[in-house]
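Handout, section B. The chain below has 213 residues.
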Amino acid sequence: MTETIKIGAKSDSDLRIAGSLFLFAGILFYLVNMMAESIYPNYNDGSNYLSDLGARSAPSMLLWDSMLFTFGIIFIASTHFYLRRTGNKLMMVTFIISGIGTIIVSLFPENSILAVHTVGAEAAFLFGGISAMLAYRVTRPPFRYFVLILGIITLASDFLLFIGIYFGLGVGGMERMVVYPEMAFLMALGGYLLNSHSLSAQDQSSSERDRLC
């Protein structure tokens, strides 16, 4: 049985905070990613990994790694508010693992301890995609279909990246096919939750007006 997000007096504030944090995290990633690529000499989206931006000695290292660490913290915090009302422990696990993976990537650049960096990156990729697919169960149509598609794209691209099939996009391009849909999911989910709050407030106002009439 599918369970959708329930909006009520107690959950309304949690959903508003979670939506704001999800949206902020996604915007933060895109803006800092753009700035980091701009200050990295001869950076190429097709041939360079995203993690190259945070490698030791890279001119964008401090900017990129600080952003990833902050993103991971915000992601875990938003998960707390989002899932406190749904009680979905499976989604809680996938969201938190993805956030922890991002923090690991920020603390262990690719040219420090590669094995730890790789585990962190894969945790962020894999469980981020799974989270998007699980969100299908707690959101309403047509939104649920979009998050399902984004989750499928992330997981399929992660598999192709793992086996080395890039379809002409290059390793960097295929990695972005993993990460960008995941970021789009976070921002879309943030907007969805904020809109749910807005609709709830409108419904409550309408009910109050009806009682006064």
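Note. Helices lie at 9-39, 61-86, 89-107, 114-134, 143-163, 170-212. Compare this with the example in section A.
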